[in-house]
Amino acid sequence: MNKAYNWQQSNIDSLASLYFIKLIPFLEFDSLLKKSRILKIPLDIIKKSTYHNWNMKDGFKKIAAIGVLISPIFFVVLTTLAMFFFPGGYSIRDIVFPTTYYKFEMNFFSDLGMLTTETGLPNLTSSILFGFALTLMGLSFMFYSITLPSYFQKYTHQYRLAVAGSVFAVLSALGFVGIAFTPWDVLLTPHIFFVFFAFPISAFYSILLCIAVFIEESYPNVYGWLLIVFTVAMGGYLWFLFGGPDLSYFDGRVIQVLAQKAIVYIMIVMIPIQAVGSLYLLRKK
Q: Strand (E) positions, 203-255?
């Protein structure tokens, strides 16, 4: 009992060991490891993490940050492959233009997710690639967003702003996952809802987090300026989305398509840069 008690007190920073020892106050840790095969693996993890002073929270934060560093690479690769397999075609004013390939300036990203193209051809391969890419991107951003408040000093204005920003970021991430699961050729109404939901919500995330970064002394201001750039870019895209050129005209469609491409690629660059800042803070900690 004394042995277990001393082990607990010397490793108070490890929550796993703290709570576990409270459950077994009358058992010695080493003897339990030898007697229980069922508990051996989790206890080994707890023991090693404690002896090496490894923090579970920091571990999750690091994984989440690395996740949003890697997922954009998969997004670019998978959507590029989806463009390659896309059978082609788009329409303006109900007039179908039967191209045989993905036209970068005329086809939206969402066209990759259609189950059947506007020319009536099956699009299963591109749809799967696009859906997986966007889902992976959305989920990785969601898990990273959950960790954002932990980089700010608790019970401060910047912490509250980061919490609010994190909520908007999670909602935006879920919106992008929703886009992936609603091919517009069969689920047009929910698809449009998720598009009009995910992009505007991400603007609130960037505004709130930007203010929090500038207030927080330990957070490099360069990431706040990058968030300002992202906010301005998103604001410009939202103007195109809600009040920009008419899609029913050729020039209008080109502008809308290229504007969407621009904001998506800006997002998949800016979010990983933000994650680099998070990793910097973890290393500095």
A: none
Q: Which is it for strands 95-97 and 90-92: parallel, antiparallel or unpaired? A: antiparallel
d(CA 211, CA 218): 14
* Burial of residue 2, with CB atoms counted within 10 A of its CB: 0-12 exposed, 13-18 middle, 19 or more buried: exposed
Q: Looking at the DSSP assignment, which residues form a beta bridge with residue 91?
A: 96
Domain spans of the chain, in order of start: 2-51, 56-284
Which tens digits make up the pLDDT trace of 30-71? 444 344 444 444 444 334 433 333 344 788 999 999 999 999
Distances (CA, A) of 201 to 56, 134, 271: 30, 17, 15
CB 231 within 8 A of CB 263: no
- Mind listing the pLDDT tens digit for each residue in 206-257? 999 999 999 998 899 999 999 999 999 999 999 999 988 888 889 999 999 9
Cα separation, 109 vs 216, whole angstroms = 37
> With the C-alpha atoms ordered 230, 190, 182, 147, is the resulting torsion angle positive or negative?
positive
pLDDT, greater one: 243 or 110: 110
Q: For residues 167 and 161, what is the distance between their CA atoms, to the nearest angstrom?
A: 10
| pTM (predicted TM-score) | 0.77
